[in-house]
């Protein structure tokens, strides 16, 4: 399996405070990874660095087979490279149907010109149905998104990101505020998505991380404190001390 993203020795300071401190991280194609760590560990800043929102003071962020540097690219260029990010709060168009939201996301993939000359083709229609099935909203295609449950909105937003066919999907606390059944579905959705792309899940909920069944990276004070299976990292003395507060 080839390396998709390679972050090496990255640091960033805010007013002299090192939020990210010599961080090194790698993820392969079609790999799922959970990133955990206490509040202030640097998880958000780390995601901001990958997406180009925050520029590191030092280190490198290399992408793809050709190991191109993401550091010289704008945020929108990085998104075009195939890095999609889902924030905690869903940002779907509430007054539009599920189908329309997915269709808009498909158009976005092809850039602004496709919006001007847009005519939904059978293929687009089929893709929307496929995506809706993938996210478990096939029977809600014509419902207004504003009427969906919190969990359903989260899935719709994941579907909208999948429509853009990212190679790396960054997801921030996808299970927050969900019912147990919704969490179960979210797990299945992410595990399925990670079969064909890399997925990084920033998460607090250990039970959810366990269900993802993936390698875990523990951040603390802007560095990687431990990495490996959930059982491995949660039995690490350093992790127990700083993360579990024992
Ligand atoms: P996490 O997502 O793990 O909770 P963050 O990446 O949000 O951690 O924050 C890491 C540290 O960097 C925190 O101490 C936070 O206060 C600090 N920080 C993050 N962004 C900024 C900023 N724009 N200005 C100053 N400090 C910041």
Automatic annotation (TrEMBL):
InterPro entries: AAA+_ATPase, ABC_AA/LPS_Transport, ABC_transporter-like_ATP-bd, ABC_transptr_urea_ATP-bd_UrtD, BCA_ABC_TP_C, P-loop_NTPase. GO terms for molecular function: ATP binding; ATP hydrolysis activity. The keyword Nucleotide-binding applies. GO terms for cellular component: plasma membrane. SMART domains: AAA. NCBIfam families: urea_trans_UrtD. Keywords: ATP-binding, Nucleotide-binding, Transport. It comes from the Bacteria. The lineage of its organism: Bacteria, Pseudomonadati, Pseudomonadota, Alphaproteobacteria, Rhodobacterales. This is Urea ABC transporter ATP-binding protein UrtD. It comes from Sulfitobacter sediminilitoris. The gene is urtD. Residues 5-246 form the ABC transporter domain. Pfam families: ABC_tran, BCA_ABC_TP_C.
């Amino acid at each position: 399996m080839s390396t998709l993203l390679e972050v090496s020795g990255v640091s960033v300071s805010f007013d002299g405070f090192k939020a990210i401190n010599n961080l090194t991280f790698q993820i392969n194609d079609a790999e799922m990874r959970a990133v955990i760590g206490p509040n202030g560990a640097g998880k958000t800043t780390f995601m901001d660095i990958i997406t180009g929102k925050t520029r590191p003071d030092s280190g490198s962020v290399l992408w793809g087979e050709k190991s191109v540097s993401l550091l010289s690219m704008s945020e929108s260029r990085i998104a075009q490279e195939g890095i999609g990010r889902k924030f905690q709060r869903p940002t779907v168009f509430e007054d539009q149907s599920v189908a329309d939201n997915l269709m808009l996301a498909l158009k976005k993939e092809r850039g602004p010109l496709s919006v001007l000359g847009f005519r939904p083709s059978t293929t687009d229609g089929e893709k929307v149905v496929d995506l809706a099935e993938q996210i478990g909203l096939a029977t809600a295609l014509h419902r207004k998104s504003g009427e969906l449950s919190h969990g359903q909105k989260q899935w719709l937003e994941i579907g909208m990101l999948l429509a853009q066919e990212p190679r790396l999907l960054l997801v921030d606390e996808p299970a927050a505020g969900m019912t147990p059944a919704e969490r179960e579905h979210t797990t299945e959705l992410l595990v399925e998505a990670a079969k064909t792309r890399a997925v990084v899940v920033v998460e607090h909920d250990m039970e959810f991380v366990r269900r993802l069944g993936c390698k875990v990276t523990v951040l603390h004070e802007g560095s990687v404190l431990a990495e490996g299976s959930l059982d491995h990292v949660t039995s690490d003395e350093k992790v127990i001390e700083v993360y579990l507060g024992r």
